[in-house]
Amino acid sequence: MSFAVMVTLSYRFNSHTVRENLLKNADNLLSFTHEQIESELIASKMMLGSFSQTVRQMILDNNSDDLQHYINVISSYVISGESGLKNINGLYGYFEITGKDEIFLYYENLVWEQPEDLSITELPWYKAAIANCGVIMETQPYMDYFTGEYIITYSRCMHDYDDKRIGVACIDVPLNKIGGIAVNAALIEGGYGSLASQDLTMFAHANPAYVGRRMDDPGLHISQFADDFLQGRNIYERSMKNWKGEEVIVFTRVLPNGWHLILLTPKKLYYHSTDEMLIILCILGAIFAAALIIVLVRIESAKEKAGEKNKQKSAFLETMSHEIRTPMNAIIGMTYIGKSANDVPRKDYCLERIENSSQHLLTVINDVLDMSKIEANMFELSNDEFDFEKMLQRAISIVRMCAEEKKQTITVNIDKSIPRSLIGDDQRLAQVIVNLFGNAVKFTQEGGAIKLDARFVKEEDDIHTIQVTVSDNGIGISGEQQKQLFRTFQQADSKVARKYGGTGLGLVLSRYIVELMGGKIQLESEPGKGSSFSFTFKAIRGSRKNADLDEKTDYSGIFSGYRILLAEDVVINREIIEVLVEPTLLEMDCVSDGAEAVAMFAKSPDRYDLILMDVQMPKMDGYKATRKIREFEDDLKTHASETHKHPHGIPVIAMTANIFREDIERCKEAGMNDHLGKPLDVEEFYAMMRKYLPKK
């Protein structure tokens, strides 16, 4: 019922809007057509005015013998269209010259003989001109003797200086062009117009059979408005049937010269959009009603699902709290024990536990950040060349210690058909393997077996498809639990999760990464008999035919002779960098804010080989400090004559906890060369330093 009321109101409102537009458009079209017609008539009047003035002056100057020649020249010029007035038949006149007989002069090329019984002084145009001395007069439309078409005549009476009449000048104007303007006036396709004279005779109509008939002819539908026409009233939005039998809407306007301009618009076409809207609204109403019923039926189910999802999120937050607080408890506890320990082995034990707990905590944080990237559609893969076998070794080594603690057997089989060197994101690939291998270790009892198989599947267009399978003989997963595994905020079994730990994000992230790599992840499992996770990924063969040997991790003295500037406001972070660079013999100056960094560099730009720049610092942040340094370098290049140490600018590396893509882009926009994320990865730190501080 509500929708029916809405449809009715919408239809009425739309009909009202269409009607308002119709009235407005009709009024505008009447005005525009009127102006076009008036423009044509005014041009003809102006031509007659100029012609009559010239003829009068010729007669007053006793040049009447040249009148015929002038009429011939000016008529030929006008009829040819060179004057721009293509709507004039010719110019002529009846002249009363002193000392001569009254003469009727017209264009000599016009083949016409004056009837013997024709009296010029009895013609309408002559009488009208004589009765209104000096005023340009217009006749009613009449049938032209030569062409059989409707024309009008403009005439003007001329007098000499003593106010004695010297003749009447005339110009004939065919109504074909003016009638065409009216007939072609249409609001929409199928509409048309017509023109009628002061006595209601139609001299322009879309149907030629109607030309010459009067609008008060009872045989015409428009005769129903005869009284309005006779009274000189305009007609606005009146209905009738046209000569085709179509329902039309009529608009008329009386022009200043007494003509009647009529516009007719097919009613059906104009209101077609409104009728279509009514049909569409009714269809939409039926669809809406059906959809509403479905929604109402499902709303209770949706509420239940929403409640279940909230429960899942609450359980997830509870799990996250446990996963974060557990390693934090170990870190705090082992720190306290280590501080009070007196022997080195016990301190080393505490540091080892602190390191393991920190890595676990960092993994949890990274998983949460990765999920945030996925939900924000900002998760991306990189493409670098890497050694596939070494990537597997690194990934397995991360969880190998846990497997050894549980006395589990690890077996790794690598298909020799797999290219040693591949191009892809080895970090994300290792993340998937660590997740799967970690789950296998976690859910397999002591003394169990875990196996990793990597095999070559196929090669198409230089793209290799590789399958990796991680299987175990652990507790297994039921069919119902398998449905929950790859869903966000869910784990297979909350009781199992409480016993074995974990956030439930690892498999969700793994599935997303695998799909980005053009692959698919699958699971085969049976309770009590173990599980087998397998996934495929696509990668391009690398250019290195043989794998490189592992580079030594001895960094003793490799940066001897280099000096860097460190801008970092947190003391402990400065201490960490100092410890990392100490064995490399790298010299380093430290400042605590960006302003100091700019001042130190400006004081001695050739003193430093590289700048490590924190982003968030007091007084001046790292972005602004880097821009200031780049501005100083540009100014130095412009005004200094000697060559400086860094012709292309000193390398500036951002060192920040802001690790999202937009953060890295912002660093580059500020003029930084590269980016290191906190907490620092030691190997990544050394690799970055070697990139910008090559061995001498």
Describe the structure.
It is a single chain. Helix 10 packs antiparallel against helix 13 and helix 15 runs parallel beside helix 16. A hairpin with a 5-residue loop joins strand 7 and strand 8. The chain is built from 18 helices and 23 strands. It folds into five domains: 133 residues, PAS domain (Beta-Lactamase, 2-Layer Sandwich), CATH 3.30.450; 93 residues, 2-Layer Sandwich (Beta-Lactamase); 98 residues, Helix Hairpins (Orthogonal Bundle), CATH 1.10.287.130; 161 residues, 2-Layer Sandwich (Heat Shock Protein 90); 130 residues, Rossmann fold (3-Layer(aba) Sandwich). By secondary structure, it is an alpha+beta fold. It starts with a helix and ends with a helix. The longest helix is centred in the middle third of the chain and has 69 residues. The strands form four sheets. Strands 12, 13, 14, 15, 16, 17 and 18 form a seven-stranded mixed sheet that branches.
